[in-house]
Design goal:
single chain; alpha+beta; five-stranded antiparallel beta sheet; 4 helices; globular
Length: 127
Amino acid sequence: MDAEALEYEYATVRIVPSMERGELINVGLLMSGIDVEYLAFRPRRNLTRFHDLWSDVDWAMVEQHLARLDAICQGPWPDSEHQLRWRNRFQWLVAPKSALIQCSEVHGAWTYLTLEAEMDRLSLRYL
């Protein structure tokens, strides 16, 4: 029996320490299933190596923001009236909100792996 391909979208979460110089650091990965209820965030594990390179960045604030992204993906939200479906949460998460913390454009793809395994594969590639 052939496995069905799963469609998903993903975006990298990046820090822009110096917009003037066009510097970007990938600090996380967001992924959402299209037809399968899946929403996940994978942060870069160790940001301390960037602290000396960009000492003017508020790294504590960056860590808090990344933790919030993870919490939003994890759900559930306490008030069921305000819960967004996983696709709506993904679209909300990738929308522009900050000059320092930005998401890349959204990329669509298909995989024969589980979405968790595909998240692992993309994390190795982009983080």
